[in-house]
Amino acid sequence: MAGSFEYEYDVFVSFCEEDTRTSFAGHLFAAFDRKKIRAYRGEEGGPELLKEIETSNIAVVVFSKNYATSHLCLDELVKIMDCKRLFNQRVIPVFYDVSPSEVRKQKGNLAEALLNGPEDKVNSWKVALTDAANLAGLHLKPYRRCVRSSKTLKSHKSGV
C-alpha cells in the first residue's frame, strides 16, 4: 500500500446499523460527503466487502452496544485488523455509548454476543476486539438534548 497505490476509498466505516445508522454513523457519512471524502459504508457482505476494506486508506470502527451481535461486523473487524498488521492501514476506533474497556474485555452485550458465535471464529473476533480497543480512538456518549420544563424556564426568567 505504499508508493503510487491509488485507494478506491478514503475511508471504510464498520458500524452496527441498528445502533448508529440514524445517529453517529449517519452524521459521519454526511460529513464525509460534504468534504468529498470517498467512504464505503460496509453495507454488503462477501468477498467484495473484504476487497473494499483492503482498498481503503483508513478504517473507522464504530463500536456500539450491539456491534458484536453482527457476525458481519466482527468479520469486518478481523479483516480490518489484518490490514492494519499487514499493510499498516490506519484504524480509528470510535466507542459510541460503550467504553474501550467493555470492548477490550468483551463485557456486557459483547460477551453475550460472542457466546452465540461459531466456535471457529470466536477466538479471532476476541483478539480483534482486544487489539482494536487498545488503539487510540474516540470515546463518545450519544447526544441527549437537555430540555428544561416550562416551570424551570419561568422561574429562571423571573429571577426566582
From TrEMBL:
<dbReference type="InterPro" id="IPR000157">
    <property type="entry name" value="TIR_dom"/>
</dbReference>
<keyword id="KW-0378">Hydrolase</keyword>
<dbReference type="InterPro" id="IPR035897">
    <property type="entry name" value="Toll_tir_struct_dom_sf"/>
</dbReference>
<dbReference type="GO" id="GO:0007165">
    <property type="term" value="P:signal transduction"/>
</dbReference>
<feature type="domain" description="TIR">
    <location>
        <begin position="7"/>
        <end position="157"/>
    </location>
</feature>
<protein>
    <recommendedName>
        <fullName>ADP-ribosyl cyclase/cyclic ADP-ribose hydrolase</fullName>
        <ecNumber>3.2.2.6</ecNumber>
    </recommendedName>
</protein>
<dbReference type="Pfam" id="PF01582">
    <property type="entry name" value="TIR"/>
</dbReference>
<dbReference type="GO" id="GO:0061809">
    <property type="term" value="F:NAD+ nucleosidase activity, cyclic ADP-ribose generating"/>
</dbReference>
<keyword id="KW-0520">NAD</keyword>
